[in-house]
Protein backbone atom coordinates (compact mmCIF):
# COMPACT_ATOMS: atom_id res chain seq x y z
CA UNK A 1 0.00 0.00 0.00
CA UNK A 2 1.30 3.46 -0.90
CA UNK A 3 2.25 5.72 1.97
CA UNK A 4 1.10 8.87 0.20
CA UNK A 5 0.16 10.52 -3.06
CA UNK A 6 1.76 13.55 -4.69
CA UNK A 7 -0.19 14.29 -7.88
CA UNK A 8 -0.89 17.58 -9.63
CA UNK A 9 -3.10 18.09 -12.69
CA UNK A 10 -3.06 21.47 -14.42
CA UNK A 11 -4.53 22.95 -17.59
CA UNK A 12 -3.22 26.35 -18.52
CA UNK A 13 -1.29 28.56 -20.90
CA UNK A 14 2.47 29.05 -21.10
CA UNK A 15 3.55 32.43 -19.76
CA UNK A 16 6.83 32.36 -21.69
CA UNK A 17 8.70 30.24 -24.21
CA UNK A 18 10.31 27.15 -22.65
CA UNK A 19 13.87 27.61 -21.38
CA UNK A 20 16.09 24.69 -22.35
CA UNK A 21 19.06 23.35 -20.38
CA UNK A 22 21.17 20.36 -21.41
CA UNK A 23 22.97 18.04 -19.03
CA UNK A 24 24.99 14.87 -19.47
CA UNK A 25 21.97 12.89 -18.26
CA UNK A 26 19.50 14.60 -20.60
CA UNK A 27 17.59 17.75 -21.35
CA UNK A 28 15.45 19.90 -19.03
CA UNK A 29 12.83 22.45 -20.05
CA UNK A 30 11.27 24.99 -17.71
CA UNK A 31 8.41 27.41 -18.23
CA UNK A 32 5.64 29.13 -16.32
CA UNK A 33 2.04 28.03 -16.66
CA UNK A 34 -0.94 30.27 -15.90
CA UNK A 35 -4.18 28.71 -14.64
CA UNK A 36 -7.28 30.90 -14.45
CA UNK A 37 -10.29 30.67 -12.16
CA UNK A 38 -13.40 32.69 -13.00
CA UNK A 39 -15.98 33.30 -10.29
CA UNK A 40 -18.66 35.72 -9.13
CA UNK A 41 -18.16 37.96 -6.12
CA UNK A 42 -20.75 38.35 -3.38
CA UNK A 43 -22.07 41.42 -5.20
CA UNK A 44 -22.54 39.36 -8.39
CA UNK A 45 -19.66 40.86 -10.34
CA UNK A 46 -17.50 38.58 -12.46
CA UNK A 47 -13.92 38.20 -11.23
CA UNK A 48 -10.90 36.17 -12.25
CA UNK A 49 -7.87 34.86 -10.41
CA UNK A 50 -4.66 33.66 -12.09
CA UNK A 51 -2.16 31.31 -10.45
CA UNK A 52 1.35 30.94 -11.89
CA UNK A 53 3.10 27.57 -11.71
CA UNK A 54 6.75 26.74 -12.43
CA UNK A 55 6.87 23.65 -14.65
CA UNK A 56 9.89 21.40 -15.21
CA UNK A 57 10.01 18.64 -17.85
CA UNK A 58 12.84 16.17 -18.46
CA UNK A 59 14.20 14.01 -21.32
CA UNK A 60 11.59 13.10 -23.96
CA UNK A 61 8.98 15.53 -22.64
CA UNK A 62 11.63 18.26 -22.70
CA UNK A 63 12.40 17.53 -26.36
CA UNK A 64 8.73 17.77 -27.31
CA UNK A 65 8.15 20.94 -25.26
CA UNK A 66 11.21 22.60 -26.79
CA UNK A 67 10.05 21.78 -30.31
CA UNK A 68 6.31 22.51 -30.12
CA UNK A 69 5.45 24.74 -27.14
CA UNK A 70 5.54 28.54 -27.25
CA UNK A 71 4.25 31.36 -25.11
CA UNK A 72 0.44 31.16 -25.05
CA UNK A 73 0.25 27.43 -25.89
CA UNK A 74 -2.41 25.60 -23.89
CA UNK A 75 -1.29 22.35 -22.25
CA UNK A 76 -2.49 19.71 -19.83
CA UNK A 77 0.24 18.69 -17.36
CA UNK A 78 0.26 15.82 -14.88
CA UNK A 79 3.08 15.60 -12.39
CA UNK A 80 4.14 16.08 -8.81
CA UNK A 81 4.90 19.09 -6.69
CA UNK A 82 8.51 19.64 -5.61
CA UNK A 83 9.72 22.07 -2.98
CA UNK A 84 13.34 23.14 -3.11
CA UNK A 85 15.42 25.49 -1.01
CA UNK A 86 18.75 27.16 -1.60
CA UNK A 87 20.87 29.83 0.00
CA UNK A 88 21.68 33.09 -1.77
CA UNK A 89 23.88 35.69 -0.09
CA UNK A 90 23.20 34.11 3.29
CA UNK A 91 19.41 34.16 2.84
CA UNK A 92 17.49 30.90 2.55
CA UNK A 93 15.13 30.97 -0.45
CA UNK A 94 12.36 28.56 -1.37
CA UNK A 95 11.19 27.44 -4.80
CA UNK A 96 8.11 25.40 -5.74
CA UNK A 97 7.79 23.64 -9.09
CA UNK A 98 5.70 21.00 -10.80
CA UNK A 99 7.80 18.16 -12.21
CA UNK A 100 5.79 16.92 -15.17
CA UNK A 101 5.27 13.22 -15.82
CA UNK A 102 2.95 13.58 -18.80
CA UNK A 103 1.73 16.33 -21.09
CA UNK A 104 -1.05 16.84 -23.62
CA UNK A 105 -0.80 19.75 -26.04
CA UNK A 106 -4.25 21.33 -26.28
CA UNK A 107 -3.29 23.96 -28.84
CA UNK A 108 -0.80 24.05 -31.67
CA UNK A 109 2.79 25.02 -30.87
CA UNK A 110 2.47 28.34 -32.70
CA UNK A 111 -0.74 29.40 -30.93
CA UNK A 112 1.07 31.95 -28.82
CA UNK A 113 2.67 33.66 -31.81
CA UNK A 114 -0.31 33.83 -34.16
CA UNK A 115 -4.00 34.45 -33.75
CA UNK A 116 -7.21 33.72 -35.62
CA UNK A 117 -7.04 32.66 -39.25
CA UNK A 118 -3.29 33.23 -39.43
CA UNK A 119 -2.75 30.44 -36.90
CA UNK A 120 -5.10 28.16 -38.84
CA UNK A 121 -3.36 28.85 -42.14
CA UNK A 122 0.09 28.29 -40.63
CA UNK A 123 -1.10 24.98 -39.18
CA UNK A 124 -2.43 23.95 -42.58
CA UNK A 125 0.88 24.81 -44.28
CA UNK A 126 2.97 22.88 -41.74
CA UNK A 127 1.15 19.72 -40.65
CA UNK A 128 2.14 18.19 -37.33
CA UNK A 129 4.21 15.02 -37.39
CA UNK A 130 2.27 11.75 -37.42
CA UNK A 131 2.77 11.27 -33.70
CA UNK A 132 0.96 14.56 -33.03
CA UNK A 133 -2.08 14.24 -35.26
CA UNK A 134 -5.28 15.24 -33.36
CA UNK A 135 -6.80 11.73 -33.58
CA UNK A 136 -3.75 10.16 -31.99
CA UNK A 137 -3.06 10.08 -28.29
CA UNK A 138 -1.08 13.18 -27.37
CA UNK A 139 0.06 12.01 -23.97
CA UNK A 140 3.83 11.96 -23.77
CA UNK A 141 5.70 10.29 -20.95
CA UNK A 142 9.44 9.96 -20.45
CA UNK A 143 10.88 6.55 -21.32
CA UNK A 144 11.07 4.09 -18.44
CA UNK A 145 13.20 1.07 -17.83
CA UNK A 146 11.75 -2.22 -19.12
CA UNK A 147 12.27 -3.65 -15.63
CA UNK A 148 9.73 -1.18 -14.21
CA UNK A 149 6.88 -2.11 -16.54
CA UNK A 150 4.14 -4.46 -15.41
CA UNK A 151 2.82 -7.13 -17.81
CA UNK A 152 -0.76 -5.82 -17.65
Topology:
Blueprint: E1 8-14, E2 19-23, E3 26-40, E4 46-58, H1 59-68, E5 74-88, E6 91-105, H2 116-125
Parallel strand pairs: 4-6
Antiparallel strand pairs: 1-3, 1-5, 2-3, 3-4, 5-6
Low-confidence stretches are 111-142
**Judging from the principal axes of the Cα atoms, what is the shape?**
globular
* Strand ordering within the main sheet: 1-3-4-6-5
Number of strands: 6
Distance between the termini: 19 Å
CATH third-tier fold name: OB fold (Dihydrolipoamide Acetyltransferase, E2P)
In terms of structural class, how would the helical and strand content be classed? mainly beta
Give me the CATH superfamily: Nucleic acid-binding proteins
Average pLDDT, to the nearest integer? 79
CATH architecture: Beta Barrel
Indicate the proportion of strand residues: over 45%
In total, how many domains does the architecture comprise? 1
Rg from Cα: 18 Å
* Total of helices: 2
Summarize the main sheet. 5 strands, mixed, barrel
CATH class, please?
A: Mainly Beta
Q: Helical amount among residues, as a percent range?
A: 10-25%
Description:
The structure is a single chain. The chain has 152 residues and is mainly beta. The protein has a single domain, classed as OB fold (Dihydrolipoamide Acetyltransferase, E2P). It contains two helices and six strands; from the N terminus they run ββββαββα. Strands 1-3-4-6-5 form a five-stranded mixed barrel. A hairpin with a 5-residue loop joins β3 (26-40) and β4. It is globular. Residues 111-142 have low confidence and may be disordered.
Amino acid sequence: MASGLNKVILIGNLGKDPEVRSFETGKNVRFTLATNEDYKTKSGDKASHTEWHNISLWRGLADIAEKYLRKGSQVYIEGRIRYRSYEQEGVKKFYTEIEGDSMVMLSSGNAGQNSGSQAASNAAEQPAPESLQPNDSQIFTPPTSQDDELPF
